[in-house]
Amino acid sequence: MLAKRIIPCLDVKDGKTVKGINFVNFRDAGDPVELGQQYSQEGADELVYLDITASHEGRNTFTELVKRVAARINIPFTVGGGIRELNDVARLLNAGADKISINSAALKKPELIDEIAQHFGSQVCVVAIDANYEKGEWRCYLNGGRIPTNRYLLEWAKEAEQRGAGEILFTSMTHDGVKDGYANEALALLADNLRIPIIASGGAGKMSHFRDAFTLGKADAALAASVFHFREIRIADLKHYLRENHITVR
């Protein structure tokens, strides 16, 4: 059995790490480079950095941040936000990122997934999906959860896989920041229908939520933000807990 991965997520706005609830009401969580280094030392398997405002001016700032992160940590990290074309991918990989995450750009131009996979390899391409549970279905959203689309979670994830995505990062907007647990039924649906790894995101509040994401949700990795940023859960303690619950972790 492949080891399950624990992934702290750092949402970056104006050079600072921030955390919101249901994609709004952000508060400051510290310096993204120092936090990343701390998580690397504490046993995180990977990191995700998301430039959540990703304005054109902010992209250059973010590239500099990626270079600083790459110089200070020794675990793989994924970056996302404002990636619209192959040049953006090349710029961030050259700055030191291991993978890139695309969300809105992939929904607007699905062939971007094919292009990234062909040029850089599927292992580089993480397709992030923000979805909200509405009227019995998981509707996908654009622009950091602001704009609803006519795409739905499973069919879009399947298309992303067929086009060459290496992983799916599914964030439940319904569960984000609420700390009541991950969207395990939706995660299991993805895991049962796709061959590529599924990363769970949105809803971590206690250690048992990670256990449930791996067992009930069949996720390959679990991503969380505030429980790590505000020291509610320490990564070493979480891994010890998961091992005690017969879940293989690194």
Q: Radius of gyration over alpha carbons?
A: 16 Å
Number of helices: 10
Low-pLDDT residue intervals, each spanning 5 or more residues? none
Overall morphology: globular
Q: Give the end-to-end Cα distance, rounded to a whole number of Å.
A: 12 Å
Instruction: Describe the main β-sheet briefly.
Output: 8 strands, parallel, barrel
**Fraction of helical residues:** 25-40%
Question: Oligomeric status of the shown chains?
Answer: single chain
> Using DSSP, what is the number of strands?
12
User: In order across it, which strands form the biggest sheet?
Assistant: 1-4-5-6-7-10-11-12
Succession of helices and strands: EEEHEHEHEHHEEEHEHEHEHH
Explained architecture:
With 250 residues, the chain is an alpha/beta fold. 38% of the residues lie in helices and 28% in strands. The chain has 10 helices and 12 strands. An 8-stranded parallel beta barrel has the order 1-4-5-6-7-10-11-12, surrounded by 7 helices. The longest helix has 17 residues, at 56-72. 48% of the residues are buried.
Question: In brief, what are we looking at here?
Answer:
The protein has 250 residues and is of the alpha/beta class. Helices cover 38% and strands 28% of the residues.
